[in-house]
């Protein structure tokens, strides 16, 4: 059998993404904003519409075949997620609305019920607002303290500061696996081991890691791992919270309602065992099915191949961008995922974004929901180009040409 080389394979995968045939401002779209949200392959869109056309009913309730089919699809998706992140059991997989809800769930269920004023959570300055604000709310509610690990000028975490941050009051380490601004992949396995040596659990925000690289939660040994489907080529409004089973069993519910109970009276409620305890109400069944389809699509390619493809794009893009006079990359440390932030001398990031948009190129320009990190680098904003598996070298060439055009227009 003839083997296609990797580049040819990835170029042909573009055809799976119908939206990439569309235009942006009348030009063929060059989509470099996958860190904000990835585009969806036909396989995901079809899985979701097939569900509505052929198998739709509510789950865990009906005693009829359609409901059984819907329940089987939903629970099979839990298995698919379990295999994808290498959890020990599918009972450790909870479906939530996204990374943000997963972190809020931990802060409110575990933190609010078990911690006291003066207890501490270790965060880093490179966190997305979704891993800052839930802890800030808890600080307002019960008086916990937030300890923030700094980053170096090249965008690496200060590991010495991390090692020194633990005290007898430390209750949680909550850090990002990969930065949505800098692209930095943090040494989370080593950081988890350090936290565990202090008997402190670790929550990883995997929103920007899971789409780009293989993740094995048992190998990392983290206690919690959260991510969103929409950055993983799946639908919006659905995500995953992984938690070690022994911790989950001990956690109180986050929200109350149908499907998360065993028995209900006005005087006493007993709760469902397992992940259902944290899935109150009718869930986003179609979203879960779309997430499973996205994961199966990625598994057929292999996450290692996705990682290698995006690393090759980084190797192509970083020198090409650095060669543009006046362009400064923000976050140069390695390893990094396919996320590149930069600023230009004398041109505001939003102006660059506008020029790129007119050339058909979609990037994000702004604070990227990471205001403390922007302040750390004394910047109001950056331009961010982020890769998905569908991007190709010729799109980097177009990006470079459009930045040069912006330079000519604004200087
Ligand atoms: N968290 C997404 C981003 O970084 C929205 O753009």
Task: Provide the descriptors you would attach to this structure in a database record.
single chain, about 400 residues, alpha/beta, Aspartate Aminotransferase, domain 1, Aspartate Aminotransferase, domain 2, 2 domains, seven-stranded mixed β-sheet, four-stranded antiparallel β-sheet, 14 helices, about 40% helix, binds alanine
In terms of topology, how is this protein built?
Layout: H1 6-13, E1 23-24, E2 27-28, E3 30-31, H2 42-55, H3 65-85, E4 93-96, H4 99-114, E5 120-124, H5 133-142, E6 145-149, H6 159-163, E7 170-176, H7 188-197, E8 202-205, H8 217-220, E9 224-228, E10 239-243, H9 245-250, E11 261-264, E12 269-271, H10 285-301, H11 303-322, E13 327-330, E14 339-344, H12 349-358, E15 361-362, E16 364-366, H13 371-376, E17 382-386, H14 393-410
Parallel strand pairs: 3-15, 5-6, 5-7, 7-8, 8-9
Antiparallel strand pairs: 1-2, 4-10, 9-10, 11-12, 13-14, 14-17, 16-17
Helix pairs in contact: 2-10, 3-10, 4-5, 11-14, 12-14
This protein binds alanine.
The site of alanine (ALA) has 7 residues, from loops.
Shape: globular
Specify the biggest β-sheet: 7 strands, mixed
**Average pLDDT, all residues:** 95
Q: Please report the total strand number as a whole number.
A: 17
Total number of domains: 2
Strand percentage: 15-25%
CATH topology of the largest domain: Aspartate Aminotransferase, domain 2
- Tell me the helix content: 40-55%
CATH class of the largest domain: Alpha Beta
CATH H level, superfamily name of the largest domain: Type I PLP-dependent aspartate aminotransferase-like (Major domain)
CATH architectural designation of the largest domain: 3-Layer(aba) Sandwich
């Amino acid at each position: 059998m003839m083997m296609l080389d990797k580049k040819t394979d990835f170029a042909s995968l573009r055809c799976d993404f119908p939206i990439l045939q569309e235009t942006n401002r009348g030009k063929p779209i060059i989509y470099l904003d996958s860190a904000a949200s990835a585009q969806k392959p036909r396989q995901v869109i079809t899985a979701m519409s097939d569900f509505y056309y052929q198998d739709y009913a509510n789950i865990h309730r009906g005693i009829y075949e359609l409901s059984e089919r819907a329940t089987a699809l939903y629970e099979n998706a839990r298995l698919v997620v379990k295999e994808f992140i290498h959890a020990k059991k599918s009972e450790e997989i909870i479906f939530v609305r996204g990374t943000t809800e997963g972190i809020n769930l931990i802060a409110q269920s575990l933190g609010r019920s078990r911690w006291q004023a003066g207890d501490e959570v270790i965060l880093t300055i490179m966190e997305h607002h979704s891993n800052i604000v839930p802890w800030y709310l808890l600080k307002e509610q019960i008086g916990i303290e937030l300890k923030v690990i700094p980053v170096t000028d090249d965008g690496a975490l200060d590991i010495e500061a991390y090692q020194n941050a633990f005290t007898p009051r430390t209750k949680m380490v909550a850090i990002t696996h990969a930065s949505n601004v800098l692209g930095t992949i943090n040494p989370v396995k080593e950081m988890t081991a350090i936290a565990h040596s202090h008997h402190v659990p670790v929550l990883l925000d995997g929103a920007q890691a899971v789409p780009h690289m293989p993740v094995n939660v048992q190998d990392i040994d983290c206690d919690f791992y959260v991510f969103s489907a929409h950055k993983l080529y799946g639908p919006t409004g659905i995500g995953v919270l992984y938690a070690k089973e022994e911790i989950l069993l001990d956690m109180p519910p986050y929200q109350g309602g149908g499907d998360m109970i065993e028995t209900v009276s006005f005087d006493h409620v007993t709760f469902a065992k397992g992940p259902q305890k944290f899935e109150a109400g009718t869930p986003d069944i179609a979203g879960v099915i779309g997430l499973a389809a996205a994961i199966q699509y990625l598994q057929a390619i292999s996450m290692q191949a996705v990682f290698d493809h995006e690393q090759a794009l980084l190797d192509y893009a970083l020198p090409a961008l650095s060669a543009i006079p006046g362009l400064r990359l923000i976050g140069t440390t390695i390893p990094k995922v396919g996320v590149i932030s930069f600023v230009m001398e004398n041109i505001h990031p939003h102006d660059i974004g506008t020029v790129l948009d007119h050339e058909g190129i979609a990037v994000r320009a702004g604070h990227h929901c990471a205001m403390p990190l922007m302040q750390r680098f004394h910047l109001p904003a950056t331009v961010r180009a982020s890769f998905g598996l569908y991007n190709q070298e010729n799109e980097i060439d177009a990006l470079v040409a459009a930045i040069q055009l912006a330079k000519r227009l604004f200087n």
